[in-house]
Design a protein that fits this description.
Elements (H helix, E strand, L loop, with lengths): L3 H50 E3 L5 E3 L15 E6 L5 E3 L18 E11 L2 E14 L2 E10 L1 H38 L2 H11 L18 H43 L4 H28 L7 E3 H15 L3 E6 L5 E5 H18 L2 E12 L5 E9 L7 H7 L16 H12 L3 E6 L5 E8 L5
Parallel strand pairs: 9-11
Antiparallel strand pairs: 1-2, 3-4, 3-7, 5-6, 6-7, 8-10, 11-12, 12-14, 13-14
Helix pairs in contact: 1-2, 4-5, 6-7, 7-9
Amino acid sequence: MISLQQQLRRQWLITILLIMLPLLLLADFGVRQLVIDTVMSRLQHDADSLITALSQDENGTWQLDDSRLGTLYQRVYSGHYFAIRDKHGTDLRSRSLWDKQAPIVPLTLGEQKTWQQLGIQGDQLAEQWLNWAKGIRVQNHDFTVWVAEDITPLKSQLNHYRLAAIALLAAALVVLMVTHRYQLSRAFARLEPLKQQLRELRFGERDDLNAASGLYPQEVQPLAEEIDRLLSLLQQRVGRSRNALGNLAHEMKRPLQQLQLLAEQLDASHQIEQRDALSRLSRLVERELKRARIVGMSSPGRQLKLAEDLPPLLQILGQLYPQARIHATYDKNAVMPQDHDDLLELLGNLLDNACKYAGGEIQLSIETYQHQDRDDQAGWRIQVRDQGPGIEPNQCKHLLQRGIRLDEHSAQGDGLGLAIVSDIVDSYQGELTLSHNQPQGLCVSVWLPMQQIL
């Protein structure tokens, strides 16, 4: 996934290129056109000088006054050329053409033409002519004036200019990129407090982002405020839900006692059925009260720190079940990435079942484990072993079938607690297995992936 900084840098670079390239092309076109216009203006000026120098002697022969011509037209292959022709055979050419022929361009009076063509080639020459020609009239005599200049040196200078411009543009682009990267880094550095507080929120070291402090940039301040609002709302809702559930279970105890007294007034055949139903309701009430005590205050988003969160749970269970002795083995520095409340509820139900229906020695182990059936995917394995009566192997398979509530198949328990555990494990795409413990009892094994799957 591309980071926001990389995306901004990429979009900025594309924008700069989209702006700079047309400007560069426009500048190149402008310089080329300026060179052409300058040369063309010079050619027209030279043509005017040629027309002024053109005269007719007493014999009626047309000639040019060499004193009015520049030395460039006198030097052979100088790159500056002219020719004056008429339809009667007059052909006045610059000495610079030497033995080369000028292009024949018959034009009518006032007609004008400009073009480019290859000039003199060979003898270490490779000329490119810029031509200008026009039909003129001198003393009622029509001529075609042609002047040309070799623009090869100008093109060479223009190419040098292009290379220098490209190099300058590349250097400017590098400087801009470095500056932009630095500015982005400084801008995103202001998000570090948000990043740090989100990390603390993830590990349960804080309850909100403290958006009211004003530490965040204006652009993300509404986001931080909304996160704080949602966190507060979630904590209130979860807390109210659990408190309401605990209060409901607590308030149901007195009506249940009254129903038990009323059941004693029934005939013997109905008393058995009534007491059995009331007994099941009592167990459910007691279970919900224990769940409220096990999980404690709601803290969504926290992770489970075994060294801090597991001992209080074991202490509560020890008070509830004095006949059970829980031996826990785990890494004191381990932090499980799943939700703190979910894992406490999972562990509480597993240990509660073991304490209630097995008692005696109970072994709890939490360790990292590579799941062989999932391409050695890393995860956490939680195992609870007891020395109780256990469950038949065929019943274990039946209890773990998808869509079947575990509490519907166990008269003594091991049902609702395992159903809750199964729901939590499924929510994290983990795995729950039941097996026989040696020499007797039940072994409940839970595997959860190392990374949270959102």
